[in-house]
Amino acid sequence: MQYIILSGGSGKRLWPLSNDVRSKQFLKMLPGEDGEPESMLMRVYRQIRAVDGRAEVTIATGKKQVSGIRNQLGGKVNICVEPDRRDTFPAICLAAGFLRDEQGISEDEAVVVCPVDPYVEQTYFLALQEMAELAVSGTADLVLLGMEPTYPSEKYGYIIPSCREAVSGVETFREKPDLETARKYLQQGALWNGGVFACRLGYLLGKSRERIGFSDYRSLYERYEALERISFDYAVAEREKSICVLRYQGTWKDIGTWNTFAETMDREAMGRVTMNETCVNTHVVNELNIPVLCMGCKNMIVAASGDGILVSDKEQSSYIKPFVEEMTGQVRYAEKSWGSFTVLDVQEESMTIRVVLKEGNSLHYHSHEHRDEVWTVAKGTGTALLDGVKRQVFPGDVVSMPAGCRHTIYADTELQLIEVQLGRGISVEDKVKYDGDLKEDGVSG
Amino acid sequence: MQYIILSGGSGKRLWPLSNDVRSKQFLKMLPGEDGEPESMLMRVYRQIRAVDGRAEVTIATGKKQVSGIRNQLGGKVNICVEPDRRDTFPAICLAAGFLRDEQGISEDEAVVVCPVDPYVEQTYFLALQEMAELAVSGTADLVLLGMEPTYPSEKYGYIIPSCREAVSGVETFREKPDLETARKYLQQGALWNGGVFACRLGYLLGKSRERIGFSDYRSLYERYEALERISFDYAVAEREKSICVLRYQGTWKDIGTWNTFAETMDREAMGRVTMNETCVNTHVVNELNIPVLCMGCKNMIVAASGDGILVSDKEQSSYIKPFVEEMTGQVRYAEKSWGSFTVLDVQEESMTIRVVLKEGNSLHYHSHEHRDEVWTVAKGTGTALLDGVKRQVFPGDVVSMPAGCRHTIYADTELQLIEVQLGRGISVEDKVKYDGDLKEDGVSG
Q1: Residues of A in contact with B12 (CB under 8 A)
Q2: B90 to each of A39, B198, B214, B220, how far by Cα in Å?
Q3: I need a surface site. Which of A66, A167, B61, B445 has the fewest CB within 10 A?
Q4: Which of A286, A293, A354 lies at the smallest CB-CB distance from B310?
Q5: What angle do CA A295, A301, A307 make, to 5 degrees?
Q6: CB atoms A278 and B313 under 8 Å
Q7: Which of B394, B432, B415 is nearest to B338 (CA)?
Q8: What ipTM, to 2 d.p.?
Q9: What is the tens place of the pLDDT at every residue in B1-42?
Q10: What is the pTM of this model?
């Protein structure tokens, strides 16, 4: 059985912990199995495998997230990279093509498509399995998941089922309603649309052929940026006749805002935090290595990261998006496939960064046109490659890379580097990449 | 006319902006004359000189504050350094000895002793001048300043005057009362004790001889640490017969807590701060170079510095002290006579610091036993001295100092260094100082 997990979102609503490269699904803030906090991504993967140890997971996502996914899940999942963000229908078509042409999956195999960000219990994945069975057994070509609504929400689309059975046909779909209309839907027995679909792989490929002339994965990838932005709901589900919906009654939270995110936390504070006894219903997440002291905070969210500090009333925190859009600051912390980086200091003509390379990893071989760089090795041992010349480095060693110098470094053990960038107008765009990989020993002096 | 300004206090109540070396009087958060924020220290000095352009100012303080005072006032003031903190009577005796023996001040000259931290208008210093005139004209040996109380405060000592004239004798002193007693004092026409004294220099020296056997400044300095801790009020004022009090009715704020400090700010936010329209009566000070976003904050103080982050209800902020006492973290930002340092990153075996040296300044010539250090020059030009050998440095240059290497650097222009310290158990105690000063060209290779 194949899972396609749609991993999108810029994560502005959970600023300052989420940013352009660290979407909310990567935040390690949920209570994990072994007491260690885990991310939404890690949680969903763990839950899928707990229900079906042989399930194969493909993550459909943009380029920016690849490194973060590899950092958290390593090689355990496939990643289908969208060259551009084009909404769910093109993303699902591309992933379907990827499964057939790159992974060799049979068109008869069941596929479940689900978002990465619902906070759910194991029973949700049992329901997904049931959906897949309904799809392959021929009950309907397309199977949806309908959440039993708990309140008249304006945030969700609604599915009007044709009867009140656990599995039923679909009368019609309704877009996000206003409060009054939502109340009427609830009286009519409507269900929230959970954004989950199950079908055979061949069904997805057929729809791709019909609507966007799909032939194979590679050619779709090439013309992906020219595809129309359209959702799977609109392009497929709302037009399908052979369709059914499975009711699901378990916990299902959309943790897209600080307010709902806080509800999933199993502790009030994460990181270096002191709260005095007059704090009430307040959640604090501190990723900085300086202490946070909260006194007399009521119904608040406090979150601090290298990107900034949020101090918000819980209810107000849902209005964060426009403010964050104005803060077009540089990303100050990011997890990458090879490790992570943290911006420590930004001055007019210099920037200081802590780079952590995981053992056995290396940076791309690259150079900068407009800035010099200096590494001080703070921890670990590694092999630097500078204009084709290899050099072993140890703690306290310094590597100077003037503008134009091609450089990379390989971590023999976990490496911590303090990198000082020097020059005017330091920019992430100023990077020329070269072939050559220290791990493969392909380049040497 | 001589001013002795008592500059004490650890500044715990204004954490995280104040710390052991940056007491509250150094925080540049008050609205200055030219729109630039100024500190309490800078403000008091400016106000004194505005009233009397020839006034001489001596700051009585501990060792830790010397560098900060020089940073803000340069050589404009004298500094009388207390070898240890011993309360106000010993501090005033030492300063009196310093004025006579080190500065050659006549015993007949008027001296005004005042604290560094009241937030007052110019009229306050006019009153201080009047006090000095009363003291030298012989109205009384000791002249006090009595503040007209505006409410029955439990925070202040009270002076009971013998009549209701502008200048009157003193009936008696009262320690900080409870609320009920404070109300009675107000009905009796009592005044708050402002902690200000005026007298002739000879008067102070006489009291020093009487109580602690003062002979001269140097010998008092030597045995300072053995002196009894006692306040000037208790040791002198409360026993004095030839005493009078001058009434003062102008603005007088004790800005020792965040709540009162916020009242003096002329803006709601300092630094990179965004507050949405639902914030009410909230003050935010951000010294970090990452943005702070506040939403729906009501009656709050938010303060962020390299030492930590405070998020507090205004009323609760007065109870901060015990919490801060538990956070015995390292000082992460300090202003020194030669410039400033900011701790950027602390890891198990390394620490990264930004050092800014003002033009024409240098560090002490020193070495470390247990750590290596590496400087990357981020900005400016300078002259490094390493084990006696001089070397010119420019942006991008790297200076490596293994443990034991004697080192300093002189700033030809303002210098920014990124210093990486490497080793286990990095400590400020690990420092050996040497003679040798680059400015005087006394040491060379």
Answers
A1: none
A2: 60, 17, 10, 9
A3: B445
A4: A293
A5: 110
A6: yes
A7: B415
A8: 0.80
A9: 999 999 987 678 899 988 777 788 988 888 888 878 899 999
A10: 0.80
